[in-house]
Amino acid sequence: MAAADARRGARGSGGREMGIEPIKSTRIYEEIVRQIKAMIAEGRLKSGDQLPPERDLAEKFVVSRTSVREALRALESLGLVEIRPGEGTFVREVSVEALIEPLALVMASQRAAIGELFEARRLLEPSIAGLAARRATPDEVAEMERILEEQAKEIAQGRTGLGQDALFHAAIASAAHNQAITRVVHAIMDLLAQCREDSLNTPGRPERSHQDHRRVLEAIRRRDETAAANAMRDHVTAVEDLVLGQSGSTLRGR
């Protein structure tokens, strides 16, 4: 018994060095899930990292392999890890898009939620346009110009130019040179895709949208951060008012 206790203590000591605590909860697998989630949140486990084998985890947590197996299955159902037969268990990449995507169907059916997404656009995109005015490379400005030329051709042929609209906003986000911002903007734009398409089907709106984009691009080209932010704010507000009508103004006045 003493030898077993010594071995148990040694295993517990090694686990503590890794930041793992012995399990005391009666629902053991939930505590394992909690600790591994904390490791991921704190960056001790990163995307692509391989977790130790079940046997090693059982020793470190001082629990049975069955409890470890249940915990790993729970983590997999949460989308935090991927269990690859014959290879092991790996931490999955949790992108902004993956976190927001499940909300898409709910958002699309709730007018208030759409209003909140437009509010997010109003907070983010003017600042992003300002950053692009400061940071965009000549090649990035040239790409924005190319996109707007394509948009003008699409509109001249009686189409909405929706594809170029999305590309233009994505190019501005990219020119801000902040990966987190780029991902958030892409996610919001994806959720609002149907609303934006509806607005561009309004007579005269594609031309107005193209003009707004031109104002933003010219400000970015001049490196005028304030003008770029103001032009983008006007553009986003105009689209919001068209989609939400008077409720858009009401939401902004809350």
Topology, pairings included?
Elements: H1 2-17, H2 28-41, H3 54-61, H4 65-77, E1 81-84, E2 88-91, H5 96-100, H6 104-108, H7 111-135, H8 138-156, H9 162-175, H10 179-191, H11 193-200, H12 205-221, H13 225-244, H14 246-252
Antiparallel strand pairs: 1-2
Taken as a percent bin, the fraction of beta residues is under 5%
Q: Whole-Å distance between the termini?
A: 68 Å
Mean pLDDT reading? 81
Walk across the major sheet and give the strand order: 1-2
What's the CATH architecture of the largest domain?
A: Up-down Bundle
At CATH level 3, the topology of the largest domain is: Four Helix Bundle (Hemerythrin (Met), subunit A)
Domain count, please report it: 2
Report what the structure shows:
The longest helix is centred in the middle third of the chain and has 25 residues, at 111-135. The chain has two domains: 2-94, Winged helix-like DNA-binding domain superfamily/Winged helix DNA-binding domain (Arc Repressor Mutant, subunit A, Orthogonal Bundle), CATH 1.10.10.10; 98-252, GntR ligand-binding domain-like (Four Helix Bundle (Hemerythrin (Met), subunit A), Up-down Bundle), CATH 1.20.120.530. Strand 1 (81-84) and strand 2 form a beta hairpin. The chain is mostly helical and 254 residues long. Mean pLDDT is 81; it is low at 1-14 and 246-251. It is 72% helix and 3% strand. It is built from 14 helices and two strands; from the N terminus they run ααααββαααααααααα. The chain has helices at residues 2-17, 28-41, 54-61, 65-77, 96-100, 104-108, 111-135, 138-156, 162-175, 179-191, 193-200, 205-221, 225-244, 246-252; strands at residues 81-84, 88-91. The N and C termini lie far apart (68 Å). It has a two-stranded antiparallel sheet with strand order 1-2.
